[in-house]
Design goal:
Residues 157-455 form the CDC20/Fizzy WD40 domain. The chain is built from 7 helices and 28 strands. It is mainly β and 483 residues long. The strands form 7 sheets. The protein has a 4-stranded antiparallel β-sheet, with no helix packed on it. It has a 4-stranded antiparallel β-sheet with strand order 2-3-4-5, with no helix packed on it. A 4-stranded antiparallel β-sheet has the order 6-7-8-9, with no helix packed on it.
Length: 483
């Protein structure tokens, strides 16, 4: 034990302090005398004046004015605790126990001792409340944000002199990104990549006008064009040259409102309710007939796998033909005749990811969307859309359907619930025909207001799509050293 005062052992024993009383008693206390007389423990008495001035401000316990002149202020030494307020005795302290109490305050409390939920209501706390452990699988995933569908078209083109006729099919978009548009007696080509417009052909007969256009599914440079005089012509859009003319019937010509390709065979629907199949590779091009409609055929489409052909006409009937029996010169009976519509059926579309599912849309008196099973002919769903349906296109990327209507609007529906996703109302007259770009993102619509509008309805994240394709491709890639 060290002392800060220069006193001899005899003075300590004869003094009246607490230490002298302890030494005078019978307690067995050992004092190391040499340590009390160490020279290096002598205090610096040069600042006694400052000590006096500070003593006036604050007088500690045991303060005696008589001892100030000597630089000696009496203080109490607590031997029971092993040290006084200023000179602690480390040996008398339990440092391990003190360390335990200090660190225990930062430890996580026992969950059973946490406050109950009702006790935490409106309780202010600067600390964040403890979150109980939760399985990662139970955490709900963030919902994918809905995509943005522009309300206005991305581009507009003029379409003067168009025939405002519900039964005709005026447009088609090729795999080479060429849009063909029929305007009265002429067919124009719009290059979607370059933005250029060119004239492809003009009807050669008097009072003849264009009634339908359809690009080949095998060669994007070949387009079939139907006319009001019952002719089907094949044109090369790259060379702007006529390849062939096929006449349906010279004795009783009827216009050709609908065309559809099945590889090298182009099928045509006439105003007389007749379907003809033309093999464009041979001289005698007609290889099959079908006479099952009483009025004009305005909708005609092959399924994506070319197993079925669906036709819709002004007699309110939809016919489904099997490809195995369609190409017969003696006439073919359909697999199913669907008669639930109450108006003409122009809008016909096959589901791209389920080729046996057919969607049809009725005219003004019907205004229904109906979905059919091509195998059984059963109507699996029908929805009233309250207006004439003039066109129908499936979108595989978003599993949606876009339809065009007599009120001048395009509507996007979610399949299979047929919930309305978006309404695009820009045309000032009824929409006559619609078609999709080769990548499926863009939709072209032509209306009785003599305008063509290009809509960006189904935008796709191309980077995410490419990564998805690479991921699926790697699943079927064998290592090079596979044996």
């Amino acid at each position: 034990m060290f002392s800060s005062f220069n006193r001899t052992l005899q003075e300590v024993k004869s003094g009246d302090g607490s230490l002298s009383r302890i030494l005078a008693s019978s307690q067995n206390v050992k004092i190391n005398a040499p340590q009390l007389l160490l020279s290096n423990s002598l205090p610096d008495l040069s600042n006694i004046g400052s000590i006096k001035s500070s003593a006036k401000k604050k007088q500690p316990r045991g303060y005696d004015p008589k001892l100030v002149s000597m630089g000696l202020a009496r203080r109490t030494v607590r031997v029971g605790t092993g040290g006084d307020r200023y000179i602690p005795c480390r040996k008398a302290m339990n440092m391990e126990q003190a360390s335990f109490y200090l660190t225990a305050a930062t430890c996580v409390s026992d969950p059973s001792k946490l406050p109950k939920p009702k006790e935490r209501i409106l309780k202010f706390s600067q600390e964040r409340p403890a979150i109980p452990d939760k399985n990662e699988d139970e955490v709900p995933k963030a919902k994918k944000s809905a995509r943005h569908i522009p309300d206005r078209p991305e581009k507009m083109l003029d379409a003067p002199n168009i025939n405002n006729d519900f039964y005709l099919n005026y447009m088609d978009w090729s795999g080479g990104n060429i849009l063909a548009v029929a305007l009265d007696q002429e067919v124009y080509l719009w290059n979607a990549l370059e933005g250029t417009v060119s004239l492809l052909m003009t009807a050669g007969l008097n009072e003849e006008y264009i009634t339908s256009v359809k690009f080949s599914s095998q060669d994007s440079n070949i387009v079939a064009i139907g006319t009001s005089m019952g002719r089907v012509q094949l044109w090369d859009v790259r060379a702007c040259a006529l390849q062939r003319t096929m006449i349906l019937d010279e004795n009783r010509p009827g216009r050709v409102p609908a065309l559809s390709w099945c590889q090298h065979i182009v099928s045509s629907g006439s105003r007389l309710g007749e379907i003809r199949h033309h093999d464009v590779r041979i001289m005698d091009h007609v290889i099959g007939y079908a006479y099952n409609h009483d009025q004009e055929i305005c909708g005609l489409q092959w399924s994506p796998d070319f197993r079925f052909l669906a036709s819709g006409a002004n007699d309110n009937l939809v016919c489904i033909y099997n490809a195995d029996r369609s190409f017969q010169l003696q006439g073919v009976e359909p697999n199913h005749i669907l008669n639930k519509h109450e108006a003409a059926i122009k809008a016909i579309g096959w589901c791209p990811w389920k080729p046996t599912l057919l969607a049809t849309g009725g005219g003004t008196a019907d205004h229904h969307l109906r979905f059919w099973n091509a195998f059984s002919g059963v109507c699996v769903r029908e929805v009233d859309v309250t207006t004439q349906v003039s066109g129908l296109i499936w979108n595989e990327e978003y599993r949606e359907i876009i339809t065009s209507h007599g009120d001048g609007a395009l509507r996007i529906w979610k399949y299979p619930n047929i919930n309305l996703v978006k309404t695009l109302a820009e045309h000032e007259d009824r929409v006559l025909s619609i078609c999709a770009s080769p990548d499926g993102e863009m939709i072209a619509s032509i209306g009785g207001d003599e305008n063509i509008r290009i809509w960006h309805c189904f935008e796709v994240d191309k980077m995410a799509k490419r990564l998805e394709r690479e991921k699926h491709a790697s699943m079927f890639t064998f290592p090079q050293n596979f044996r």
